[in-house]
Amino acid sequence: MSHPHPELTTPGPLPQGALRIIPLGGLGEVGRNMTVFEYDGRLLIVDCGVLFPEENHPGVDLILPDFDAIRGRLDAVEALVLTHGHEDHIGATPYLLREREDIPLVGSELTLALLSSKLREHRLKETAQHVVREGDRIAFGPFDLEFVAVNHSIPDALAVAIRTGAGLVLHTGDFKMDQLPMDGRITDLRAFARLGEEGVDLFMTDSTNAEVPGFTTAEKNIAPVLDRVFHQSNQRLIVACFASHVHRVQQVLDAAVSHGRKVAYVGRSMVRNMAIAKELGYLHVPAGVLVDAKELAELPPEQQVLISTGSQGEPLSALSRIAQRNHNFVHIEEGDTVVLASSLIPGNENAVYRVINGLSRWGATVVHKGNALVHVSGHASAGELLYCYNIVRPRNVLPVHGEIRHMRANAELARETGVPAEHVVIAEDGFVVDLVDGKAQVAGKVPCGYVFVDGSSVGDITESDLKDRRILGEEGFISVIVVVDSQTGKVVGGPEIHARGFAEDDSVFDEIKPDIIAALDRLLGERVDDNHQLQQAVRRVIGRWVSNTHRRRPMIIPVVIEA
Amino acid sequence: MSHPHPELTTPGPLPQGALRIIPLGGLGEVGRNMTVFEYDGRLLIVDCGVLFPEENHPGVDLILPDFDAIRGRLDAVEALVLTHGHEDHIGATPYLLREREDIPLVGSELTLALLSSKLREHRLKETAQHVVREGDRIAFGPFDLEFVAVNHSIPDALAVAIRTGAGLVLHTGDFKMDQLPMDGRITDLRAFARLGEEGVDLFMTDSTNAEVPGFTTAEKNIAPVLDRVFHQSNQRLIVACFASHVHRVQQVLDAAVSHGRKVAYVGRSMVRNMAIAKELGYLHVPAGVLVDAKELAELPPEQQVLISTGSQGEPLSALSRIAQRNHNFVHIEEGDTVVLASSLIPGNENAVYRVINGLSRWGATVVHKGNALVHVSGHASAGELLYCYNIVRPRNVLPVHGEIRHMRANAELARETGVPAEHVVIAEDGFVVDLVDGKAQVAGKVPCGYVFVDGSSVGDITESDLKDRRILGEEGFISVIVVVDSQTGKVVGGPEIHARGFAEDDSVFDEIKPDIIAALDRLLGERVDDNHQLQQAVRRVIGRWVSNTHRRRPMIIPVVIEA
User: How far is B217 from chain A (nearest CA, A)?
Assistant: First the structure.
């Protein structure tokens, strides 16, 4: 299995009749999925999602794919295909549309409805939208697209087959193969088989669960567990899940109806998404079951069900506030039951356990995936991927959607089903893969860094700023200000020393002030008036002192100001 | 089950003949275990460990128990009993000994040997040490102690039975009930039974795994898995595990011998602890198998085994450096195998996955608890705890060692075996539990905050400093310096504006400088010369500007300096 290393360089020009694949996100991380296809000078984009920052991206709101590789060629983009409505597949679209507003958007009904609501929030115009459904075939420039139903943890997900002169590519998007899904809409293996018979030249497959042996449990298997939880509870019930998981919410609604309870949504995104899903007919809300949250609070506890966001322990979410008994109208009580009907995204463990501990402290029973089957994954496990490889029998495989460990596991599955190792390409973000004469291989690499969104700025925050933030966040800073008379070259003010995140009263610095003045006087006496040199002298004195006295390394900000 | 809430106040005086239990750590978190027993004016301490900080304690090195509750009474301490040699049970001892150097230390041979090595690092004198072993009975003041063998993930762990006039307390320490342990030293249920027959008035039991159903797998079951991994590997093998896990290292040594490989240790704590364990006879190193790391590097890869630290993804550990191909003499190659023979402590997931992804990138096979039985826990699962409750049949139960969710699950197990709910006490750090006339109950609460070690300072860093660090770490800061002539009351220097972690060139602030000067001039014109008011004015101008232009809230440090 080919996994070339970072000495790759910018690829040469694309050979006539070849297809170039440029993954700009999602190959090396779970999130910011985006792939560019290039054929005959024209571009097709599949997905444009965000990545949620982890602890080494302090203060960052979102991480976007790096559009640099196509920035000069946005006019050549024929369409943006969105495989489903999750944030990690659609969330960066507004940022791309800011750069070219009229890129045609292609996706299923629910996907585009969720996207529209996002575009409105960003105050972007509704651009050309092409609603497609499984079985549809539609061409954008040289890209002849066919859509295939796939099952995932959000309704209406699509795989896409892309035909060009270079051959047939099948991109699964995120998918699994629940054989008895809530909506009866299964991953269409008959279509996979038909495409396989035609000959799939490149199969791009979801790697997320490739390390997980066996088969992903069916969504429906949660129902009896929810039923038991509802049966055992004689007080308030709170169910937290992802705000886009229509089928999970459906199951909670159904359980509420059969146990004679009413339901209210808590959390802005839950309210918004479920309204869309209901309006389009993806969510079936039995008459009378849904009430407004304040109305619900007036009912006896044994008739209440809250469906809320906050399943990842987000500190500002309703659930976190409930766990701290800090919520407007939901006051958790001994005997209440809280169900976390969701995955636990790596990195969120401590936050989620804080919520569970908080709820436990007040005597609530907490049901979560660690102690009951209240969550199933949205991704195909190894067993399902093997079925796919055996049905499609692709010529080449490019694992997508996952960290390196996931992609390697996926590649290994392809190999085990008989795809020759030299036809299984492991690529990371920015690796350029060319499909030439029926063979896929890495042709080079383009820059593909993380683009950070922070407040209203996009791409201004760099790794170096994050490094500063990490130092500031771990060690705090000491700032030393000295005023020098520009005429006399004498210190006339300060040193004033201020520290934050450093823990000592600022008077602790009094002992080092004479040394700072002495160091400056010495330099000024030598007629050194270069501000940078003076600052460095201050930095050295205070840095040495703090290291000796405190064994710490705060950021030191020396300021020599002339007045 | 009683779990009183924070409105508790300082407890009244201890009734004559009663025993008071003051948990100063470990009840509400996994770590910094420390419990104080008070009887007849005298004190006994069991364990004195550290807690490792998580992401909301930025820059903190260690967290200690809060000694405040006993600070004025250290002379009354009869002894400090250490149940086993893990950091979360012994690590804070040097800090306690700094406050009273000659507290008698009581523990098993290995526990005290590991502690001695720690005291030497802290340059503390070796104080009175009492080596005890299972079956020993020894009194310290009014506390009559009996030690009971327990099995854990480090050899030579002890439970302790404490007899006073108030009754018999049995404290398990950390334990599990491996029935076929490597060293044949099982948790002594015959002693538990005998104590139970005598009558255990209070049973303090390890809660860590109380949420885990069933039984903890035996350590020995790892051997066949290691054997298979060794058998399948024909290149270098690296096994990472905790540096105190003598039996895990023993199994790796044994596998190395049977597969004709040599072993070297990597990581300072691994080298140090295994030397101690070998010298005392807890680790059996077959002749010739152990070589020095540089010597090992000269051998053919198929003869190499490295046993290293870094199993939690610690960024500076050997394993992290290997994963980044940044290690002095270990260069990871396609086909190498790395075994993470350890748990994954919550909060470390991203760091560990970074290491796994790094190793995978170079083509190493990574074996970990997610895909093979290469780790078993050191703590009793629910099934084992039920055995204990049924054998001991305690009058009262106080779950210890765990977060609230663990302690509540443990309490529930006690209740299920027939301990009346009103005799199961759920307490958190600082809750004072009195055993009076055979009944344990919460008598009040003493302050028991986190004590942060940062560099050479202990307890100087407060929650407010951490809040500053969190803001600095997420948002960075903007500092604005203005020099005012103290004679004329005019702005004569600045504003100089410096930002860090904020992402923009400092010239972005030029546009706001006139507004700052105008605001100051206005105040100075009104003869306002209170420095604080001037600073607030500067803060308001720049704060409003940055919020409008950037939608962010960096820390703002206004400095008005007189010259």
Answer: 18
Domains identified in chain A and CATH numbers = 19-214+377-454 (3.60.15.10), 219-368 (3.40.50.10710), 463-562 (3.10.20.580)
Judge whether B91 and B118 are in contact, CB under 8 Å: yes
Q: Are A313 and B320 in contact (CB under 8 A)?
A: no
| Beta-carbon separation of B472 and A477 below 8 A | yes
Average model confidence (pLDDT) for chain B? 94
Q: How far apart are CA A414 and CA A417, in angstroms?
A: 5
Which pair of structure tokens corresponds to residue B287?
A: 């002749």
CA–CA gap between residue A441 and residue A67 (Å, rounded): 22
How many separate helices (H) and strands (E) can be counted in chain B? 16, 25
CB-CB contact of B230 with B319 (8 Å): no
Q: State how far the Cα of B552 lies from the Cα of B563, in Å rounded to an integer.
A: 33
- Backbone torsions φ then ψ of A458, nearest 5 degrees: -125, 115
Rounded to the nearest 10 degrees, how much is the dihedral formed by the CA atoms of A384, A386, A387, A390? 160
Token pair recorded at residue B403: 């977060």
ipTM given for this complex: 0.90
Q: Is B361 on the interface with A (CB under 8 A)?
A: yes
d(CA B308, CA B322): 11
Q: Is B492 on the interface with A (CB under 8 A)?
A: yes
pLDDT tens digit sequence for A510-521:
999 999 999 998
**What band does A276 get if pLDDT is binned at 50, 70 and 90?**
very high
Q: Are A155 and A183 in contact (CB under 8 A)?
A: yes
Within 33-62 of B, beta carbons closer than 8 Å to A belong to 54-56, 58-59
Contacts of A25 (CB under 8 A, 6+ apart): A31, A32, A33, A34, A49, A51, A64, A65, A66, A92, A429, A448
Distance CA B8, CA B196 (A): 32
- Put simply, the answer to whether B563 touches A473 (Cβ < 8 Å) is no
Residue B251 to residue B231: CA distance in whole angstroms:
14
What is the distance of C-alpha A380 from the center of its chain? 19
- A550 is annotated as an active-site residue: no
> pLDDT for B461-500, tens place per residue?
999 999 999 999 999 999 999 998 878 888 888 899 999 9
Query: How are beta strands B202-206 and B237-240 bridged, if at all?
Result: unpaired
The C-alpha atoms of residue A196 and residue A170 are separated, in whole angstroms, by 9
CB-facing half-sphere around the CA of B563: CA atoms within 13 A = 28
Q: Is B253 helix (H, G, I), strand (E, B) or coil?
A: helix
Residues 6+ apart with CB under 8 A from A492: A483, A484, A485, A563, B563
A368 at the B interface (CB within 8 A)? no
